[in-house]
Automatic annotation (TrEMBL):
Protein name, as recorded: QueT transporter family protein
Keyword field contains Membrane: yes
Signal peptide region: none
InterPro entries documented for this protein: QueT
Membrane-spanning parts: 15-36, 48-70, 76-96, 101-119, 131-155
Length: 168
């Protein structure tokens, strides 16, 4: 009986992570015109608040971002470092999960600090790094701080239904 419980939890964790990755990819691809480029607004980045609810969201948003960057024909630097920026933000959000209002801060900061360098050296963007930090930061604040927090508070009421794990 104990083995089935562990197995059920592992399956539940994997399915949740895969669903989050799939939703991230779909949102990125559907809104591709605003999701890629020097000034981006990735609606899918709102999902990086999900580690507040489940650790399965950490690999979920990372894999979703990685696949989105590959499918979006991003340069290798963006595939690697853009995805790592999302992973760093998701891990730190999970670490801050006991502080609901701070969950959105790590992904905003990690993307604001990392993505301008990707834009400069991966895409040859001519803008100054501080300017790109400002523009990327604004997009992240809107996507994560705005949409992400709306999502966080909307899901709060249903977290035990949506993010439950199998126990038997």
């Amino acid at each position: 009986m104990k083995r089935n419980t562990v197995s059920s939890r592992a399956v539940s964790y994997t399915v949740q992570g895969a669903m989050i990755a799939a939703i991230y990819v779909v949102l990125t691809m559907v809104f591709a015109p605003i999701a890629f480029g020097p000034i981006q607004f990735r609606i899918s980045e709102a999902l990086v608040i999900l580690p507040y609810f489940t650790p399965a969201a950490v690999p979920g948003v990372f894999v979703g971002c990685l696949l989105s960057n590959i499918l979006g024909s991003c340069v290798v630097l963006d595939v690697v470092f853009g995805s790592l920026a999302t992973l760093i933000g998701a891990v730190c959000s999970w670490l801050l999960r006991k502080h609901k209002l701070l969950v959105c801060v790590p992904p905003i900061v990690s993307n604001t600090l990392i993505i301008p360098w990707v834009l400069r050296y991966g895409y040859g963007a001519p803008d100054l790094i501080p300017w790109m930090m400002l523009t990327v930061g604004i997009g992240e604040v809107l996507a994560i701080g705005g949409l992400g927090n709306i999502l966080l508070f909307a899901l709060e009421k249903y977290k035990h239904v949506i993010f439950r794990t199998q126990t038997a």
